[in-house]
Amino acid sequence: MAYFSQQLINAITLGAIYGLIAIGYTMVYGIIGMINFAHGEVFMIGAFISLIGFMICSFLGIGSAPVAILLVLLMAMAFSAVYGWAVERAAYRPLRGSFRLAPLISAIGVSIALQNYVQLVQGARPKPGGQIVSGGFNLFSADGFDVRVSWLQIIIVVVTVVLMAGFTWLIARTSLGRQQRACEQDMKMAALLGVNVDRTISLTFVLGAALAAVAGMLFLMYYGVIDFYIGFLAGIKAFTAAVLGGIGSLPGAMLGGLMIGLIEVFWAGYFSSEYKDVAVFAILVLVLIFRPTGLLGKPEIEKV
Amino acid sequence: MGVRFPSMLKDAALTAFVAAALGIFIVGFRTVDVGSRTGLSFDYQFADLAVAIVTIFVGRLGLSLTAAGLRWPVVALGVAMIGVGASQLKLPSGFLHWFVALGGVMLVIRGIWPWARGTMTAAAGTPTGLALGQAGTKWFGWLLLVAAVLLPFTPAADQKTMDLAVLILTYVMLGWGLNIVVGLAGLLDLGYVAFYAVGAYSYALLSTQHGLGFWTVLPLAGMMAALFGIVLGFPVLRLRGDYLAIVTLGFGEIIRLVLLNWVDFTNGPAGIGSIPGPTLFGAVFSETPPAGKQTVSEMLGITFDGNHRLIFLYYIILMLALITNLFTQRMRRLPVGRAWEALREDETACRALGINPTNTKLTAFAIGAMFAGFAGSFFAAKQRFISPESFAFIESAIILAIVVLGGMGSQIGVVLAAVLLIGLPEWFRDLGNYRMLAFGLAMVLIMVFRPRGLIADRQPSVRLHPAGSGGGP
Fold first, then answer.
1. What does the pLDDT look like over A97-156, one tens digit per residue?
2. How close is the nearest chain A Cα to the Cα of B19, in Å?
3. Chain A residues with CB inside 8 Å of B39's CB?
4. B199 found inside a domain
5. Could you tell me if residue B111 is inside a domain?
6. Distance from CA of B392 to the nearest CA of A (A)
7. Do B114 and B195 lie in a common domain?
8. Contact A278 B257 (CB under 8 A)
């Protein structure tokens, strides 16, 4: 029981990170119907910017952890958003209206380029991030096993929940959210009614990138080590989360992220950690075969 | 013609600003290990960043100027940039020389592009140009083939060249195999390397553990890979384009992870070594014959030369690649081949006309997988050592890039693309890590400027009505 609870806590933390990345996939897919293959790399870049941010904070002598985290959070969000914008501008906008696979291929190109760019300028070795937040408390003890919750895990879950709530509000209540939903339904009609489609799509990428950057920062704080290659695996897992939850649906992305976190942690905890990624990929395949609309998605009707 | 400098300057400044925002942290602060417990420290690279940003500013300005019609000043600017890049000027790093020079090259190309294209179109329109063009398309493939057959006999065929030629031909074959799936049937397969891995491991395991020879295993490996193609393809082939892409990517990763983790069977990350090479009528290529075997040099009565093995490998892969090509060309004329192309153009219409989409896709998937299996067992025989590392996602991406760059569905395009994407980077090996960066950027640029590939050949093989009479995308 205690072991199970501990795994559950770890799984929720991991799931929160995946969920944040998955939102980026789901929003972009919702609005332009395409997989943003470079999203995982934006997450990786967010993690790198956070690493550099924390180092700058420590050089400037900002000792207080909350201030440092807040500063780095804003910094990573802002600068990763530029990457999101650039990806859209370079690889997606020129190809809108091209054949369907063209943007996917160009996004794979962007993904390869970004990975190698970071490897070149930052080096290929894993980067230790140091411990920014330490400590925690014992939730309860059973069978001689302490169930621990670290402050870090609480921060991760709280940040995720706050961002999720803010985001849901943004989509449901603001004019930007309305414009996004309009573009999602019918881009041409939205343009006719005065919605700036280019700007809306750009903003979707920007918002997705900002959330991915947060995920990158949390990932850095949680695992303590990053390298230029983390984006690939995390990206695929988050995409799986988005598909599992029903691509195009915000709560679905969060739910999917949570489930992927659960599957991964419990598989590693009870079966074998070597095959945890295989389990996640298998879930992806199974969901796509048996329920391609995901758990909370709307069925897509193909129009001729 | 009014040239509005202020707005151009503003535009270029904005671009430079975005570049600065992109680069300030990632490029400006290089994190380096200091080796002590503090972990990392900074190595500031602001000078590099500044040079790069200035280059981007000038480049963007140049592009706007060309768009406004000021071509020759831009060409001059580009030449000046190439000059700066090639000069002995002390830029902060060697890469920046390349960066500035390449920016200059881009400006020059952009500057002379309208003129060059006009001239080319005009030249192609003249009677000689027309005749040349027709002869070119007709005979170019044959010329390449003759050149490929004769290559080992030319003085250029040293070890480096032959190695490279074998590598390029392997990718040509893989490209042709994937072309069946992506180019003809229109299924985006991001896990093609999985079948390559199946072929390679089939040969490696059967030869090292059961003593089977290359020629026995070759068809088996192809069948094995095709079987994998059918088993993996059957459940997923009804998915739409990009979902299919992700599922195949997932399969590719699953197979790699299994190869990596199933240590009893595949020897895990350590890989499988001392795989025997292919034999020529039972004779092996080595200086001293192993027990009970004969070497080729003894059999043919020639002196031993290490290059013979390479030349033999070269002809094997050339033959395998040609078989792939011939097979595809013939398949395109069969009903199933036509069904592939029809399916690529419009699945719903095909369904309405009574084509079974799943079976049709499955044949394409299995045949593509089979050729990957052949290529895989050749790869294992050539390398004599394989490990899961050789079958990462990036390989799939490279093969896909070859197919896409070549122009999906075009056979000769695949050859050109393989030479460009594999040959050039290998030749400029000292570019090192930059070549993958350039590779990714090239993929983006090709998609943006020539989304149909170098040789756009998406014309259906057969048409009810002649081209130009309406219909088609």
1. 777 778 888 888 899 899 988 988 888 888 887 777 777 777 777 777 778 888 889 999
2. 9
3. 128, 130
4. yes
5. yes
6. 12
7. no
8. yes
Same domain for B304 and B428: yes
The span from the CA of B396 to the CA of B344, in Å, is 21
Given B124, B154, B182, the domain boundary residue is B124
Answer yes or no: do B348 and B419 share one domain.
yes
B34 with B104, same domain: the answer is yes
Do B253 and B312 have their domain in common?
yes
- The residue written with tokens 């895989």 in the block is B376
Closest CA to A91 of A202, A236, A203, A234: A202
pLDDT, tens only, A17-30: 999 999 988 888 88
Q: Which domain holds residue B37?
A: 5-124
Going by pLDDT thresholds of 50, 70 and 90, the confidence category of residue A13 is: very high
CA B299/CA B285 separation, integer angstroms:
11
Write out the two tokens for B32: 């380096």
Is B106 in the same domain as B224? no
Interface of A with B in 221-240 (CB under 8 A): 232, 236, 239-240
Same domain, B94 and B176: no
The reported pLDDT for the residue numbered B298 is 67
Chain A residues with CB-CB distance to B250 below 8 A: 236, 240, 281-282, 284-285
Domains in chain B, number: 2
Residues B120 and B171 in one domain: no
Give the closest-approach CA distance of A62 to chain B in angstroms. Answer: 16
Is the Cβ–Cβ distance between B328 and B403 less than 8 Å? no
A63-104 pLDDT, tens digit per residue, is 788 888 899 999 999 999 999 999 999 888 888 877 777 888
- Average model confidence (pLDDT) for chain B? 81
Q: What is the pLDDT of residue B473?
A: 41
Report the SS3 class of residue B409.
coil
Q: Which of B124, B155, B175 is the last residue of a domain?
A: B124
Query: CA B296 to CA B312: how far, in whole Å?
Result: 11
Answer yes or no: is B109 within a domain: yes
Phi, psi dihedral angles at B30 (to 5 degrees): -85, 125
Q: Domains in chain A, start-ordered, CATH in brackets?
A: 2-124+150-290 (1.10.3470)
Average pLDDT of span B389-394 = 86
Of the candidates B389, B453, B427, the residue with the CA atom closest to the CA atom of residue B183? B453
Confidence category of residue B297, pLDDT binned at 50, 70, 90: low
- Are B49 and B27 contacting, i.e. CB atoms less than 8 angstroms apart? yes
